[in-house]
Amino acid sequence: MRAVGLGLAVCLAACTAARWPDPQTPDNRPADLQRVDWSRPEQKEALTTAGLLGVTPGGETIRISTGAGGPQWRTPTPGAWDLIGLGGLVIVLDDAQVTVLNAADGSVRHREPHRGLRFMGAARSGQTLLLVWSTPDAPQAPRTSRLMALSTLDWRARWQRSMRAVAGAPQGLSGGFVVPWDRQNLSVVGADTGREVARLRAQADVFDWLEMTSGGLRFGGKQRFRVEKGQLVGEAQRAWPALPGRPRPRPSAYARRATGRERPPIMALREPTDGRGTAGGYYVYYRYVFRLDATGAVRWARVLPRRVRTARVGPAGLWVADEAGAVHRLRASDGTVAEDRAPAEPLLAARLVGSLPRLDPGDPDHPPPDLRAQLLQVALDPDAQLSPARAYAVQQLAGLPDAQVATDLLALFELRSTPALVRDALGSALSARPGGRRALLDALSRRFDFLEGTEAPPLGLLLPAIVQAELEEATQLLLAHLQDPATPVAQLHALVVAASALQPESTVTPLLQFVRLYRADSSFDSRPAPLVAAAQVIFEHGDDKARDQLRELARSSATRPALRTAIEGLQRRRQEPAVVADAVPATATAVPSSERSAELTSDALAHALGARAEQVRGCLSQATEERPNLTRVRLLVRLRKDGALQRVQVRPDPGTLQDCLTAVLRDVRWAASSTPARTVTLGLRLDPVQLPAQASPLPWWEAVSGRARRSARYRAARAQPWWHTEP
Amino acid sequence: MTPHMRMAINRLWLVVFYTLSVCSARADSLDATPEEIETAAAQGDHAQLARWLLTGQPDAVTDLALERLASLKRPESLEVLSQFTRHRRATVRLRAYTGVSQLRSKEAAAVVAHGLRDASPRVRGACALALARMEATQALPWLVVALSQGVPQAATGIGKLGTAQHVERLHAELGRAPLSALLAGYREFLKRADLELAVKRAIVGRLVEVAGPSVEAFFREQLRTLAFEKDSKLRGDLQRAVRQVSGAGA
Lengths: 727, 250
What we know:
The structure holds 2 protein chains of 2 kinds. Chain A is of the alpha+beta class. Chain A has 19 helices and 32 strands. In chain A, the strands form 8 sheets. Chain A has a 4-stranded antiparallel beta sheet with strand order 3-2-1-28, with no helix packed on it. A 4-stranded antiparallel beta sheet of chain A has the order 4-5-6-7, with no helix packed on it. Chain A is globular, with a radius of gyration of 33 Å. Chain A starts with a helix and ends with a strand. Chain B is mainly α. Chain B has 15 helices and no strands. In chain B, about 75% of the residues lie in helices and about 0% in strands. About 5% of the residues of chain B have low confidence. The interface between A and B is medium-sized, with 26 and 26 residues.
């Protein structure tokens, strides 16, 4: 009889394992959900004193007091690269296994190999520890996961489950665990039995993260949910504006656990909310800490001496441990340091554990933080690797009402050591700021003067910002710099382009004088680009008389060959029939009825898009907003025999872009053809930095990509579309 | 009139006609040759020279045209010459400033004074000397600044145009600016009849403190070149200074 009972039990366990997660388990059944206690599990041996757990480069796991003194314990964990603090336990990870340590003394309690799977996370509920592994990152790897529950009393397996799904990091509940899987489901399993007692299935959103708050479990993807009276309830939450590095306030349950060296110390840390989602938080970027309010506005900023390894929000402040094992406690009110713990030893990974005591409020008479000075300190930090956050500081600085800020921005702008990314942010900030335009003009007014000891302004830096700000009043100053012999010849081309972009018509006469004066001179023999650019402007924006004068210069034997060739080329191009120019909207009122339709070629398509620059800009802006990483798309246009548009296809398809471009191209008249269907493709390389700041829906750091920025700084100035077509 | 003479006259007419027709045709041409520049200069045709300059010429032609235009000393040329003070080649600017300085007007002096701000030290130095030649008193403050900023040639102008107070400025530059440039300024001060004897004697006294072979040579040169009244105290000072300086040197 006993044998039969044992057999039944084994069969039951095996059957349960085979069926898990049980396909019969209903989704979102209120009765099931109502039975679950969604609150935090009780942990009797939870650490009461704050401490810093760390993994050293030498392969040891240590615990350091957040106060003074050396390590409290030290346990060899060769090859370890990350750790998790879990109440009274420490889960240490290396490439081969998970090692469970006692947080109080560092003794090893258990070791469990990964068995070819990727460790996703661990959770505790009472005397049970749940470890979860899932499919590794290999592209063709089968979707499989392993769950293992261990008793923390005898370290024997209480239950094990495997499932054909990708499970994420679990969360402990009072009496059970929540296991997310396939980003769609949350299974609630009993801590003792491993039986699935309830299941939540996402309907309008995914379940990507889990978070235990004082009010119970919260979870969600873009939205935030809780379970109340057996029902899924959405919670309002105010999102912060996008931050450089895209830190997630709540890490994904499915994220790969990166090693300490791999993981950039970029964090967004929310303060615990009271359920209304009004709390502020902190944004950590390597060595910088920004205090943000509920709206995402910066309240104070601090530069720390070393890179942050871990940070945790405590009562009335932020606790930060850096890569040298130092602990800084920053007061929430003003960012002043409540207390510092001197560096202990280098750490690859670290966790602040235990209950963090409330930070003392500090001197009530302490003056409020000088945010302008703090942000300026970040912006001036010489670490070029941290440019994204420095540029973020610039953007925040530009938002301050202080009148001195425009001067600060300009001074930063003129520093030659300022990285391009920061300079781009400064350019946008200066042009958008009320006093910024004046500051730009003032900077441009400066001339080289030996007696006064003044240098020529850094035109290479100023011009993009001036063009972006559409500072038409700067045109005459630009022309004055063009004529100034102290202006480096390398800057002249940019000056011509910038001046003509601002006021093309009014620059024709001065540029004609300029070209005439130097057409036969040796000054531009090595760099004829300024003269050629000026000739181009005259050809494009001048009247017939101006063009005739240019042609006369080209006929002169004294005119330098480079200029002569350029003028002749311009003239030839002007005389050629402008086939592509015919690709204009059929519905446009300005189109004459006698207009000839264009043949479908890549050039004609590019020109047709260029003729609808604003519409296309809108389409692409929306697309880049939907997919910030979108840098290029391939456009395929197919015509019917009668020249009507048959299909527009965009790859990769970022959603609305295909429909948007179809609408733009629908009214283009194309020539009919005897060929049944014609197809042409065109690559569009997006360069959103060329969008005027006010027009860009993206934060600038999303919009800027280094190579495109460097190569295309003046394309907008040339009044060309800000995207680039590729054959 | 012999047939030979008639033939010669006809040939002359042909030459004149050809020359005139070529000249009128060239007048509309963009490009000028050095010969045409010389011809226009010989004819005093400053307008034609200016036209050629403004339509842009090769370097050598530009340089020649500027020199010739300057040599005509026509006030109307100021505008064109001023334009060339902003040319990218420093040699062109140098010629243009030199040309402007020959016009000897207040406006011209203002243009040349602007040359003290130029990026090229050669241009700055030439302008400082030109201002001295032009006796442009209104540029004196700028010459003082230029001297302190490192334009040693400004000392000559200060010596020529400055007052007793400016002597102190020269003294202040001793040890900083090249001594030869400062001595040129002192030379101008000592030459001047409108400067008090006491100031001149103070100059000699200050230079004795500097001493050195160049100062001794300077004193000897002053003894040779200056026209002293009989029993001039300045002569005595200079003679004593020579003895002191040469004695110090020995």
